[in-house]
Design goal:
The chain is of the alpha/beta class and 337 residues long. The protein contains eleven helices and eight strands. The protein is 40% helix and 12% strand. An eight-stranded mixed sheet has the order 1-2-4-3-5-6-7-8, with helices on both faces. It starts with 11 loop residues before the first helix and ends with a helix. It folds into two domains: 237 residues, Alpha/Beta hydrolase fold, catalytic domain (Rossmann fold); 72 residues, no CATH class.
Length: 337
């Protein structure tokens, strides 16, 4: 991806914050979303927001959101707009507790949740094929992208049965380095409080559901994501502590095992994801394409004159995904004459 930030938007922090808050997200009117509630294998639920194309057999783009994201996130609306422009079906599965309603099980979601990714993609693939669809591509943003790459690596060649191509966008593929980076310097005062403002209340609501589930006082005292994950995320999802969670959930060490066509996009000035933590060509299989532009921030990539827009990144990533799934796309497009 060739990207140059506007001259009036210098630096990784500005390129992260401004696009999320002020840049235009869509070129046309946003289409209404339809929500489906699925019962999970463990008796919980998750909500999937969907946007239809002209026909249900048109290609399907699945988007996995980032930490505390949703279908209302700026990148989600930009991808939904891209899908509508290209007449694609679009689906955003909310990780548990992220759709506006607290989930029921004594768990939430985490960066390496590849089992959940697998269940979601299997169901979406089955439903899409039942309606005549052939092509399914998937992208994950930040946390969702790391989980998607973990899934692709864990399943190797079998991943091609569920998705024709995948992409991760601004994902912390080495969670230890990214987790430590977000707790240092300016990041600790800008982004850490932003995340904890929503994560702590959700965790406390989970404690109210299941009193004694974790150390409530330790959670209230947590000042960074390391401490939060140590009290809440790690123990609730089968990890010993934060170090164990961040090490075992990271996708980078497994990316040589990916066999489905995959794209990893990371800006080198991302405040959350240190450039030295990113995979190089020797860290990935031949199925993985690395895009590492110098600028862009964290899920920013704003373009154009003030106030800018964020459609350029979905344009580039979406085009790559469709090309990588080229055989199926051509077959489906030929049906349109």
């Amino acid at each position: 991806m060739l990207y140059q930030a506007p001259a009036w938007l210098p630096g990784g922090h500005a390129q992260t914050i401004w696009p999320a808050l002020y840049a235009r997200r869509n070129r046309g009117p946003l289409k209404p979303l339809m929500r489906a509630r699925w019962t999970t294998p463990d008796g919980d639920f998750l909500d999937v927001d969907m946007q239809g194309a002209s026909r249900p057999d048109r290609p399907l783009l699945v988007l996995f959101h980032g930490l505390e994201g949703s279908s209302g996130s700026h990148y989600a609306q930009a991808f939904a707009d891209w899908a509508a422009e290209h007449d694609l079906n679009w689906a955003l599965p909310h990780f548990r507790g992220c759709s506006g309603e607290l989930n029921q099980a004594p768990r939430a979601y985490h960066s390496g949740d590849h089992e959940e990714i697998d269940w979601i993609l299997q169901r979406l693939r089955h439903e899409h094929r039942a309606q005549g669809g052939q092509t399914l591509v998937a992208a994950g943003v930040s946390l969702g992208g790391n989980a998607l790459m973990r899934w692709a690596a864990e399943h190797g060649q079998q991943a091609c049965r569920q998705a024709d191509a995948v992409a991760c966008i601004c994902s912390p593929l080495d969670l230890m380095q990214s987790g430590l980076a977000i707790g240092r310097g300016l990041n600790r005062f800008i982004y850490t409080p932003m995340f904890l403002r929503s994560m702590k209340p959700k965790a406390l609501a989970k404690w109210a559901q299941y009193p004694g589930l974790f150390d409530k006082d330790a959670l209230l005292a947590a000042k960074d994501l390391f401490s939060f994950d140590n009290v809440f995320t790690a123990p609730l999802h089968g990890f010993k502590n934060t170090e164990d969670y961040w090490r075992r959930a990271s996708a980078k060490a497994l990316m040589r095992d990916i066999r489905v066509p995959a794209l990893a996009l990371n800006a080198l000035n991302d405040p959350f994801v240190p450039a030295q933590s990113l995979p190089g060509p020797g860290d990935v299989s031949s199925s993985v394409c690395l895009w590492q532009p110098a600028q862009g921030g964290h899920v920013g990539f704003a373009q154009g004159s003030w106030p800018a827009h964020v459609r350029g990144m979905p344009d580039a990533v979406g085009a790559w995904l469709l090309q990588a799934g080229g055989l199926q796309v051509k077959q489906e497009e030929s049906k349109n004459g």
